[in-house]
Give the backbone structure.
Amino acid sequence: MGKTESGTYEGFSAEERAAMKDHAKEQKTAARRSSRADKAAEAEQDVLAKIAEMKDTDRVLAERVHAVVTASAPTLAPKLWYGMPAYALDGKIVCFFQSAEKFKARYATLGFSDQANLDEGTMWPAGFALTEVTPEVEERIGALVKQAVS
C-alpha cells in the first residue's frame, strides 16, 4: 500500500486502485454472460486478450505460463483476476500470472493462492519470480500446477 517517506499510510497506490477497478469490471462482465460454456470460452478469450496487451517480455512469459498451465491442468479454468491472467478450480483462483509492469516490479510472478495444494511442512513458497521460461522452468511450473490441483 502507498506510504510516504515518513512511513505514514497514504492509501492505495495507483497500481492497486487500477487492479481493483479491473476486478470490478471483470465481475460485471462475468455477470452479464449467459451460459456456463459461453462464460468459460469468453473468460479464456479475455485472458488471451490481456496477455496480448502486455509488453514484450511479460507477454512472452505469460504466453508460456498460459500454455503450460492449461496443458498441465486442464481442469483449471482461465479467467481474469484483478486484471491478471489466473486459473481457477470450481470458481476459486488456484494460480495467477502477475506481469512485472502491472505493479512496476523487477520481475513477473507466478503466484499460488491458498487453494493450491502446495503444502510442504510448516512453510512453502506461494510465489515464484520469473525472468525467463526455459524448458526446465516449464517442467517445474507443470509439476507445481499438477500438485496444486491434486
